[in-house]
Structures are given as structure tokens and as C-alpha cells.
Input
Amino acid sequence: MSKKKYFYIEQYVYSNFVNNNILLYNTFTNKFIDVFITNKELLNFIERVLLKDNLRTIDVSQEELKNVIIAKFINKCRDLFIADIIESDSKPFIMSPIPKLNQNIRESIKGNSEHVLNAKNMIKELNYFIDSKKTLCTNIKLKANGYKQILFPFYNAEIDKQLEFLTIEKFLFDMNIQNIEKINIIGNICSENYNNEILVFFKNNFIQFHTYYLDFDLNGTFATEILKTKNKSFVFWIDNIIVEDQILKLNEFVIKNNIYSIFKFIVTNEHEVNQVIEFTNTITLNYELIPFFNQTNIDFFENNIFNTKKDILNQKLNEREIFSKMYINILNYGKLYFLPNGAIYSNLNINPIGNIINDELSYTLKNEVLNDNAWFKTRDTILPCKNCIYQFICPPTTNYEKFINKNNLCHYNPYIAKWQGEEGYVPVEKCGTYTKEKGFVVNKRKVNTLNKQIWGEE
Amino acid sequence: MHKTTFFSTEYNKYMFSFNKKYILLSHPVFEYLFNSDQDKKNDLDNQLNTLTKERNINREIYSNSEYDYYKRKYEMLKKADYFLEKNCDSFVDGLISHQDINFELCNLRALVFEVTERCNLSCAYCFYGDHYKQYEERHDKDFNIEDAKIVLDYMKEKWTSEYNESIGKEIYIGFYGGEPLLNFDFVKELVNYIKTIQQQTKLKFRFNMTTNAVLLDKYMDFLVNNNFSLTISLDGDKKNNCYRTFPNKKSSFDVVLKNIKALIKTHSAYFKESVMFNAVLHDKNDLIDVQNFTRNKFNKSIRCTEVNPLLVGNSFLYKGRFFNLDKSEDMHCFLESSDANNYNLFLQNYSKFHFEDFNDLYNYDLIKVFIPTGTCVPFSRRMFINAHGKILPCETIGHEFSIGDIVNGEINIDTKSIADKYNSYFIKIRKRCKTCYKINFCGQCLLLQIIKDDGTMKCNKIEHDMHHKLLEQYYSIIEKHPELYLKIWEEIHYV
Output
């Protein structure tokens, strides 16, 4: 047997190849190669390496090694320890990083719909919105849309009846409640509409109460009752009206009673960010800044929230996290939301998947598990991310994307493989149009023209 | 602490890091630098001298640039903790709770009754025969039908509880022997009883039976009508099947073959869909011959297992051929064999790409703790009840390990005492597991293979200096047949 040269991609390297654009990401060093390939020989070479049956290992011919462009590519891969060349009498075996899912309930449900109830063990978090009409919050946009982006209390004048917890209890009867990791109760918990049945039902679960900070009555019954329970915590939502005295009192209350709490400051522009930083510099507070899209502050989002290349590639990703993103949306997975009118959602920006009054748990779960609504909303199911080499490196889609009606909150155009600031960059919007109904629709002719201009004919 | 293991196939060098769980191609420079690091030479001058000396030797084979490149690559891997020793102590610290056992009971997928101890054959290697001592003496006892109904009533409660997460999946009711068809009245009555449970609940049942097929001609209509999944024990052609004899030592082969032919003739669709074969590999048969026989004669593959490891002495031990994966028909058989399952387990445990289910994807970063050895959590695979009413985790386990019983119409399964009993075994063995290099890949059952007659525990522990052999064994084959990887990875899913 004569020795051959084999080119192989290392097992710890994540690869993605979309429309002549390749990403090779070294998960050990976070260094990467991302190139748009125009050379036909190099394209053939890469396609051969990435052909599934070749397991990312191929023998390299002398002609290929003599090709300057291929040789340059190989050298770059070797420099970054992304790939290597070995001389051997026999092709080495590299276990290609193909994720394997042993039990895929989505597939088994297609075979037998009764399997759907087994999906109950996928439920991780229940979010229960209570009626919060009586509130001191005066921010109209936040009151109207806050719940769709963040777990801000729900206010809707059209829904005037609070769902009785008994109904939820009945709905959840078939579930093994102890498996649920977290319960969020969102709304004006100090109002008379809230009762404590829920605390009894979830006595062994971790409950987090989300409330608008000015609505929390430190002298009321709830503040007294809550001290008698365990595994409870608070989120106090604070808008641009910062009443210092109330925050200090709330902070004192939670510290004194050893209750884990977090103060979430909702910010819509840089000025509010500075305001919060200035305020929190003077006190010891467990706090977070939470952006809110108010339909007029897209610039704030573009400058502060949209991902840059540096953001995406500096994440120090766990290899298993990348695989996980191929199947599920980690931010949405296992979450159910109940509105006071009984509607059940897997994400509050899309249609409900059931109604607690009329539907059974199995029906609701089936609606979610068999569709790419929220739990399984991965980036390869949406445009333009479907065409992007960073699709599984990038954070999962969030409520912001849905609410803003733009799937890619980033400065990258996958159709021309260019980041903002790079020569030839044009925004994604120039390659197609966003519509409310269809999402992003690509204009293929325009994309071809742009690519020819940027990358040349080859 | 588990170190990186370097190993070689005939043509290539590899290394496996316990810490990063990657098998990478190695280079001799890596091994040299790794060993140098291992020496823990604190004296920098000494270390430099050693490096210079070694480098002079290597220079004949490796150029300066090659050496420097792999030294840089080694440093990169080292920085990424690839060569870091893994502390696996907590890996096998798992214990089981009574809730775990109850959960498994509520999700029990296979309930197997030893219908009768009686058998119309007297196979030489039978583990109820003279060659095994772990099993109680046989008294030709039949299973009491009323007790069986009580077991089913008890299980009905479990299967319909909120802990059941196997909704819609078929529950297998197995009829095992002896030869189960010798107690056909029991089979018939229990099948009818289960049908009533099926009507009352949403539970779905499937019957299965392992038979020697001697009485198949008499009862086949019933088995077909009730869609039994039927496993026929047959060790190959007449010569290969020589140990399967009647008590008068006469071969059973002709009778069995005649009955199988009758089944094919009258119920060909059923035969095609629901009949399987299994064979015991012993000193008088051959895997390839057995496979060829069932394929040519019945157009079926056959599941082969070697004689039970509890066999006394070396009698009957299989000495025949194994699969030749260069042949496509052998590859096909291999993929249906338990060897393919072993490869699946190997690939799963020596890579980072395996996920059990969607929850595993969600908890991608969770550090898992396992129970030591390859022992199953009781009832996670099946419940076997012998004709005397003793409850066992499976039919191959010695009767002294029973985990419950049914006596005087009362079923006794004390989940707490079962958990305590198992945990006492786990605590005793885990110290040994913590330094074993097969810690992530142990297939040994405590009850079947590790606990000896005198109560001591002995297992095939793998030290670091032997770990490379295990890796070489798997990689030598998969390197020659890389197509196995995709086939196993994509086609084999265990339940």
C-alpha cells in the first residue's frame, strides 16, 4: 500500500457551508475561517471534504496541493489548527461531529399521535399572567406590549375577567409538576384579584413573582403572606420613572427577609441607560438593564442589541451548545404562557396553541411539538438566517425579533457574505423585502447581481 | 484521575482525552511532549536538556518546522485542557431512589411471565440445566393465573398514574418458559384478561413469546389471531442445532422445521411480519453458518448470543467465526447484532455528539452523574416473574437477586428496600469504578457478572495501560469500515 496525503478537519471544529460561503470554527480557540469561495477548484475541494460520506477526511492529489489557492486554504486551516494533513497508508477515521438524537418525540408523534402526552416532560417553565388593570404604571407602550418582549405585567382592557387558578390546576392535572423548573407569576400580585391558591399548588416549585415596582405594597397582605413561604423570589420591573424611595424600601425588604430578588430597569435609549447607571452607582442593588422596543428606537437596538461579528464569534461556545441550537430554541424551549382569558401560548408574539378552558393538554402540546412555533424555532427555519453560515453560532431568535418583525438582529448580510463596514456591504433589506405575512422574501436576481459585483464572475 | 490515552491502529495514531471527550489524530511529537509533561520535571535545565536530546533523535524523522508546528499544536490543545487529567470521581456517584424505581415501574415496557418451568426439550446448555448453579432447581411448576391477574391489576394502576411518560407506547407482555406453550391455558386466559384491561384504559399491549416451536402447529392460529411477536429458538441447521434435543436425546430439528414450514404455509404474512429467530452460539455451531441458514431457508436474519457467561467451566463456549465486514451480507447481519449495539455505545460514550432526547439538548451543559457499572435500574427494561412468583429485573439474573414476589395473592414490591439493596452494591463497587478506564462504557451487570457466589465483587477493570487496547479494538475496525459510523449513528436507536 502506498502512502497518501489526507486532509482532515479536526473533530473539535464546527463547520457550516451555505451558498459557497464556509465557516470553520475552532471551538478550542474560538478562531475561525469564514470565506466566500469563488475559485472552482477550491469549491470542489471543500465540497468533497464536507460530503457526508467522506467524514471530513479526503485524500489530496498532487494537483490539488500544487493549486496555489487550495494550498493557501490548507495552510490557513493548519495555521489555526482547524485542519491538518497526514501522510498514511490508510485513510484515518475522524468521528465527524454529527449530532445524534436518540429519542425524537417529534418523529414518534407523527407515527402515533398518542405519544404527544409524553411531551409533558418537556415543559420547563409556566408563566401565569394575572390581571393587572389596577396599576400605577403610566407608560402606555409598555403596558400594551411589554409582555410580548419581556415578562412585564399584562394589561388589556378587553380582558376583564381573571382566570381562576382552579382551571389551570385542572389543565395541569396530568403533569408531573415537580419536573417543572420554574413558575413565573406576572402581574399585580398585591391586587385583590390575586389569590394564594397557586402557592399551595406549586408549594414544591421555585416561583418568581414579576411585578411593576410601584404596585408592590410593602404594608399589604401579600407582603406579609409571602414571608411564610419558601423557594420564592421577586422581579421588580422599573420603567423610566425611577422613584428612588420605593426602590430603596423594596431592596431593604428583600435583603432583610433574605428573598432573592432582581430589579430590572427597562431602557429604550442611551439616556435611560446612563440614568440607571448613575442611580445604581450610589446603592448596592442586584439589577439588570432590559431593552424595550417602543417602535421608535430601532437605532438604539441597532447600536446596542444587534450582533456584530465580534459578538458572535467571541462567545466561547460550548460544542454541545452549537448542536443544541440545531434542534431547539433554548430561549423558548419548554415554556408555556397563560393569559387571563385562558389563551395558552408558547410565545406571546404568535397565535395561541390552545385554550385552557376548551382544550386538553395533549392538544396544546401537539400544536407546539409538531410545529416550528417557538420551542423548535431554530435559525435554519427562518430567512435570512437559513442562508447564513453563523446560523447555529448566533444566539437563538428572541421575542425582540418577532416584535420588530426582523429575524436577523445583526449587521451581517448572508446573501453577499459581508458584515457592515466591509467593502461591498449592503443591508439584507436590499436583497429582498420583509412582509408581515411572509417574513423575508429574497430577490434572487438582485442577490446574483450584487454577488457578481462584489465577488466577480468566478 | 483519568489521563489522555494514546493508541494506534495498524496505520494511524490517535489519542483520546477523557476531559474533552474527543478522539483526535495524534502525532509522535504530541506523545513525546505529553510524556515529558508527565515526568513533572521541576528542574528547567534538566527538562531543556531532555528536550534537546529527544529533539536531536526526532530530527532524523521530523524536520524542525514539523516539530515546531506540532509543538505549537500541542500547546494549543494543552491550553484547551485537552491533556488535562479528568477527575471522574463524581461520574459514578449516582444512587437510585425509591422514586426512581417507582418511575420505572410506572413506565415499565415489558412484563414477562415464566409461564411454566416445564419444557419438552432438554437442551444441553440450558441455564436451568446441570451446568448452572445460580438458578433454583426446577419443579415443573406452572404460573398461577390468579397471581398473574393480580400482577396486571397492580401494574394497571402504575401504568395509568401521572408518572407514566410512555403514553401510547406498546407494553410488551412476554410469555417465557420452560416452554410456554406447555401451559397454553394460562396464555389464553391471560391474553383475554389483558384485552379487558385494554378496553378499560388507553393502554396498548403487544404479546410476545419465545418458543422452541415444538408445539407450534397446535397453537399457531391463536398466536396469529392475537398478533404475537414470536421468537423461535433455533441454533441453525441440523448439525448446528445439535444441542437442542428431546429428553431422549433425539434431535428436535425435524419437528421444529416441519412446524415452521406449516406456519409459513398457512400464515405467510404473519411469518414475514412477526416471527423472529434467535440462536445460542456454542462450541458446535458457527455464526456465519447460522446466519446463512435462516437467511436462505426463511429469508430472515437471526439474533445470536453466546452461551450464558455464568456457564461452569469452558464447556460449550463459542469458538466459531465472527463477522467479516468486507462482505455486505455480514455487514447487514452485524448491524442487527448486539455487536452493533456495542459500537453504538462506544461511539456514544467516546464523543460529545450524542443526545438522549430534547431535554438532553436543553440541558446540554449538565454534568451527569451515573450509577456505577452497566447495571440497569430495576424495571427500566423489564420485570420478569418466575413460576414461583419471584420478581426479577430480568430472566438472566440469578434467583437470589429477586426484588419482590407475589405470595398468597399479594404482590410485594418494596421500592425503598430495592433501592437500599442496589445502593449498597453501588457504594461497594464504585471505588473500583473511579479508577477504571472503562468507567464511561461499562457493560457489566453487577448481578450477572460482578457479584460472585461468596458475595465478593470482581470485574474486568481496565487500567490506563490497557485502555489503549480497548480503543484499538474499536478503531481498527471502524477505520477499515468508516461507513459503519454513519450506519450505526443514524440507524441504531435504543429504547
Summary: Residues 114 and 177 of chain B are 5 Å apart (CA to CA). The radius of gyration of chain B is 26 Å. Confidence is low (pLDDT under 50) at residues 41-45 of chain B. Chain B has 17 helices and 14 strands.
